[in-house]
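Hey, sorry to bother you again with one of my protein questions. A protein chain has come my way and I'm curious about its shape. I'm sending you its amino acid sequence along with the backbone structure tokens. I owe you a coffee for this, so here goes:
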Amino acid sequence: MVKGRLHLGAEGVLELKLGLADETSNETYLGLSASDFAENPLRRYAATANDLMRWTRTQAELSWTAPLGEQVVTRTVLYHHYLDRTWTRFDKFAEGPDVHDLLQTDPTSGQGALYLSILRGEEDSASLDDALALATNDRRFHSGGLQSTARWSVGGESFGSDLEVGLRLHVDSVARLHTEDLWMMTDGALTRADAPTTTTLDSDAWAQALAAHVHEDLRIGGIHVLPGLRAELIRSQRIDEGAEVLDPRLAGILLPGLGALAPLGPWLDVFAGSTRGFSPASPGDPVEVKPETAWSNELGLRHHQGSRHAELVGFFNAYQNLTGQCTLAGGCAGDDLDRQFNGGAAWISGVELVAGSALLMPDGSELSGQATYSYTRARFQTGFVSSFPQFGDVSPGDSLPYVPEHQASARLVWSHRVVDLGVGASYRSGMLDKAGRFPVSDADIPPLFLLDASVSAQATDRLRVYATGTNLTRSDALVSWRPFGARPTAPMTIMVGLKVGPPEPSGAADVSPGAP
């Protein structure tokens, strides 16, 4: 990535950002059976030997920030992104059981055990019926647009106003060409079957969106009132080769929101907010597929006194129509890929707690810590039957899949002159693999605990050395059964790096795991 900035004096600032990324990897979607996972979570089946991911992504952004008088600042961004991705991977048996169900049930006898042995490379394919179907998904994504905002700020000590208005024009498109080839398992290796390549999807989809927003931060004394409104108009279409061409779909919506913050004392604030959310239907979906809409509400208290801070927030999100996007990662296949499914009404509520403090030690070092906890209750309010694998046969009161009820994390950092040392831990409770009721079973996702650490040292005035380690307990816990098979968490990872730049005060560097 390359960034450049040109200061134009009273005319403002011109910025250019260019990016290029490329990947070649043997990524796969095929996991393991329960017994194989227990023996070696990092095992790969012979059926994935030809799995190959290749992609290239480019980006370009040109922005201009300029003042209009003394109280108005404008910012305009012109952007374009492109991604070319080709992924060949194991998809299914030509004729055989559902692979997700096969690996989750882990059969030890009968036809199921035979198919599982073929995946492992222990048995040969006897005919095209038990051949392995390898899919190649060739996709090209384009997105681009122009966005402009203007912010008008006025006020003094007892009154203030920050008014922002913005307009955005966005266009994107995706061309998909999905093909399928049959391969035989022979002596533990894949050999090409005497069968033609079939095209499973040849489609082009596009969308055009026009969005406008206005947002106000009105301050009267210590009270902030934050109303806002966003309007979106989206036109989209999907054209599949050999299928009926539907007229472009047009959708429009108004998204209001209102927030407020008020002091209850010198160290305590109360805040609340309510915002309407929206996710449009995918291009090409039939008219009976409705967009996702929801109202998100929160009410909380915020404490701040010196180096201590704490926050308690309760939230309630009411989905009028929760949708499920049918991707291969979610366990979908065939004609259901890239489709969107209605999930009916759902309520997601809970509470979040954050607390932190810093302590100055006698030797001049600082010890700081922060802990977070959240409880989430996610329930369907309507019953329905869906072909989306993670929904299935849903009854009112069922919990949403892959939403943990409990999550917690804690981090402790010691900073002494040029050295920072940090240690952190995170926990989440078990999750359902499919909509249903708690507690979790062996067919679901167990709890997960991870430990990380970091160290950073200022070697010279302009050189900082850092190291981070994640999953230091080397946990191999199961994190998903989707799209098919047990999949472990990422293994222990150690990263060492250098930062070159202006001197940083002790404690200022970001040495958390994954930081650049």
About this structure: The CA atoms of residues 445 and 482 lie 11 Å apart.
